[in-house]
Amino acid sequence: MARSTSPRNNGLDTPRESRRSIRPNYDPEVFGRLSERFARFLGTARFLVYMTVFVLSWVFWNALAPRDLRFDDYPFIFLTLILSLQASYAAPLILLAQNRQADRDRISLNEDRAQNARSVADTEYLTRELASLRITLGEVATRDFLRSELEDLVKELGAKPESDAK
Protein backbone atom coordinates (compact mmCIF):
# COMPACT_ATOMS: atom_id res chain seq x y z
CA MET A 1 0.00 0.00 0.00
CA ALA A 2 1.43 3.36 -1.04
CA ARG A 3 1.88 6.10 1.50
CA SER A 4 -0.27 9.15 1.07
CA THR A 5 1.61 12.41 0.53
CA SER A 6 -1.40 14.66 0.86
CA PRO A 7 -1.01 17.83 2.90
CA ARG A 8 -3.52 16.51 5.44
CA ASN A 9 -1.34 13.48 6.22
CA ASN A 10 1.84 15.16 7.41
CA GLY A 11 3.38 11.87 8.53
CA LEU A 12 3.64 12.65 12.23
CA ASP A 13 2.76 9.05 12.99
CA THR A 14 5.53 7.68 10.79
CA PRO A 15 9.25 8.32 11.05
CA ARG A 16 10.78 10.68 8.54
CA GLU A 17 13.14 9.13 6.06
CA SER A 18 16.69 10.15 6.72
CA ARG A 19 18.26 12.31 4.09
CA ARG A 20 21.49 11.14 2.64
CA SER A 21 24.32 13.54 3.11
CA ILE A 22 27.93 13.63 2.12
CA ARG A 23 28.80 15.20 5.46
CA PRO A 24 29.67 12.75 8.22
CA ASN A 25 27.26 12.42 11.12
CA TYR A 26 28.63 14.55 13.96
CA ASP A 27 27.49 14.15 17.55
CA PRO A 28 29.03 16.91 19.69
CA GLU A 29 28.34 14.99 22.91
CA VAL A 30 30.29 11.93 21.75
CA PHE A 31 33.13 14.14 20.52
CA GLY A 32 33.13 16.03 23.82
CA ARG A 33 33.32 12.82 25.86
CA LEU A 34 36.15 11.58 23.63
CA SER A 35 38.06 14.84 24.08
CA GLU A 36 37.63 14.63 27.87
CA ARG A 37 38.97 11.09 27.91
CA PHE A 38 41.91 12.14 25.77
CA ALA A 39 42.62 15.20 27.95
CA ARG A 40 42.41 13.02 31.06
CA PHE A 41 44.91 10.60 29.51
CA LEU A 42 47.29 13.45 28.59
CA GLY A 43 47.41 14.44 32.24
CA THR A 44 48.66 11.07 33.47
CA ALA A 45 52.11 9.76 34.26
CA ARG A 46 51.39 6.85 31.89
CA PHE A 47 51.17 9.26 28.95
CA LEU A 48 54.48 10.88 29.94
CA VAL A 49 56.14 7.47 30.17
CA TYR A 50 54.72 6.43 26.75
CA MET A 51 55.85 9.68 25.14
CA THR A 52 59.30 9.40 26.70
CA VAL A 53 59.70 5.82 25.49
CA PHE A 54 58.46 6.81 22.02
CA VAL A 55 60.81 9.80 21.69
CA LEU A 56 63.83 7.95 23.11
CA SER A 57 63.18 4.98 20.81
CA TRP A 58 62.88 7.32 17.85
CA VAL A 59 66.09 9.17 18.70
CA PHE A 60 68.11 6.02 19.48
CA TRP A 61 66.89 4.24 16.37
CA ASN A 62 67.66 7.18 14.08
CA ALA A 63 71.01 7.84 15.76
CA LEU A 64 72.33 4.28 16.21
CA ALA A 65 70.69 2.17 13.49
CA PRO A 66 72.56 1.45 10.27
CA ARG A 67 72.42 4.39 7.87
CA ASP A 68 70.11 2.65 5.36
CA LEU A 69 67.52 1.79 8.10
CA ARG A 70 67.26 5.34 9.48
CA PHE A 71 64.19 7.28 8.40
CA ASP A 72 64.78 10.60 10.22
CA ASP A 73 68.35 11.91 10.41
CA TYR A 74 69.88 13.99 13.19
CA PRO A 75 67.84 17.18 13.41
CA PHE A 76 64.87 14.76 13.70
CA ILE A 77 62.60 17.01 11.64
CA PHE A 78 59.95 14.31 11.19
CA LEU A 79 59.84 13.72 14.97
CA THR A 80 59.43 17.46 15.51
CA LEU A 81 56.60 17.48 12.97
CA ILE A 82 54.83 14.57 14.71
CA LEU A 83 55.18 16.19 18.15
CA SER A 84 53.94 19.53 16.79
CA LEU A 85 50.97 17.81 15.19
CA GLN A 86 50.18 16.02 18.44
CA ALA A 87 50.41 19.31 20.36
CA SER A 88 48.26 21.15 17.82
CA TYR A 89 45.47 18.62 18.36
CA ALA A 90 45.99 18.19 22.09
CA ALA A 91 45.63 21.88 22.98
CA PRO A 92 42.15 22.39 21.45
CA LEU A 93 40.93 19.07 22.84
CA ILE A 94 42.12 20.04 26.31
CA LEU A 95 40.39 23.42 25.95
CA LEU A 96 37.20 21.69 24.84
CA ALA A 97 37.36 19.40 27.87
CA GLN A 98 37.92 22.42 30.13
CA ASN A 99 34.94 24.22 28.58
CA ARG A 100 32.73 21.21 29.18
CA GLN A 101 33.93 21.02 32.79
CA ALA A 102 33.28 24.75 33.20
CA ASP A 103 29.73 24.24 31.88
CA ARG A 104 29.18 21.39 34.36
CA ASP A 105 30.59 23.54 37.16
CA ARG A 106 28.29 26.43 36.20
CA ILE A 107 25.24 24.15 36.24
CA SER A 108 26.32 22.69 39.58
CA LEU A 109 26.86 26.19 40.98
CA ASN A 110 23.38 27.26 39.86
CA GLU A 111 21.86 24.16 41.46
CA ASP A 112 23.82 24.85 44.66
CA ARG A 113 22.59 28.45 44.69
CA ALA A 114 19.00 27.30 44.25
CA GLN A 115 19.45 24.74 47.04
CA ASN A 116 20.97 27.38 49.30
CA ALA A 117 18.08 29.75 48.57
CA ARG A 118 15.61 27.00 49.48
CA SER A 119 17.57 26.29 52.67
CA VAL A 120 17.57 29.97 53.62
CA ALA A 121 13.82 30.19 52.98
CA ASP A 122 13.22 27.05 55.05
CA THR A 123 15.39 28.40 57.87
CA GLU A 124 13.57 31.73 57.86
CA TYR A 125 10.22 29.91 57.94
CA LEU A 126 11.32 27.73 60.84
CA THR A 127 12.66 30.80 62.67
CA ARG A 128 9.31 32.55 62.29
CA GLU A 129 7.48 29.41 63.47
CA LEU A 130 9.77 29.10 66.48
CA ALA A 131 9.26 32.76 67.37
CA SER A 132 5.51 32.26 67.06
CA LEU A 133 5.67 29.23 69.36
CA ARG A 134 7.71 31.18 71.91
CA ILE A 135 5.17 34.00 71.88
CA THR A 136 2.34 31.52 72.21
CA LEU A 137 4.09 29.67 75.02
CA GLY A 138 4.64 32.98 76.78
CA GLU A 139 0.89 33.42 76.90
CA VAL A 140 0.20 29.85 78.10
CA ALA A 141 -0.03 29.27 81.82
CA THR A 142 2.67 26.97 83.13
CA ARG A 143 2.12 24.21 85.66
CA ASP A 144 3.90 26.14 88.41
CA PHE A 145 1.82 29.24 87.68
CA LEU A 146 -1.42 27.25 87.83
CA ARG A 147 -0.31 25.54 91.05
CA SER A 148 0.48 28.85 92.72
CA GLU A 149 -2.82 30.36 91.54
CA LEU A 150 -4.76 27.36 92.85
CA GLU A 151 -2.93 27.55 96.16
CA ASP A 152 -3.81 31.25 96.38
CA LEU A 153 -7.46 30.45 95.62
CA VAL A 154 -7.53 27.71 98.22
CA LYS A 155 -6.07 30.13 100.77
CA GLU A 156 -8.64 32.77 99.83
CA LEU A 157 -11.48 30.27 100.03
CA GLY A 158 -10.16 28.99 103.33
CA ALA A 159 -9.80 32.55 104.66
CA LYS A 160 -13.23 33.81 103.55
CA PRO A 161 -15.35 31.50 105.72
CA GLU A 162 -13.40 32.53 108.76
CA SER A 163 -14.00 36.20 108.04
CA ASP A 164 -17.68 35.53 107.28
CA ALA A 165 -18.01 33.70 110.62
CA LYS A 166 -16.94 36.71 112.64
From TrEMBL:
- A matching Pfam family: DUF1003
- Positions of transmembrane segments: 47-64, 76-97
- Superkingdom field: Bacteria
Stretches with biased composition (Polar residues): 1-12
Would the keyword ATP-binding turn up in this protein's UniProt record?
no
* Residue ranges of the region described as Disordered: 1-24
Alphabetically ordered keywords of this record: Membrane, Transmembrane, Transmembrane helix
PANTHER family, per the entry: INTEGRAL MEMBRANE PROTEIN-RELATED (PTHR41386), MEMBRANE PROTEIN (PTHR41386:SF1)
**What name is this protein filed under?**
DUF1003 domain-containing protein
Q: From which organism does this entry originate?
A: Candidatus Planktophila lacus
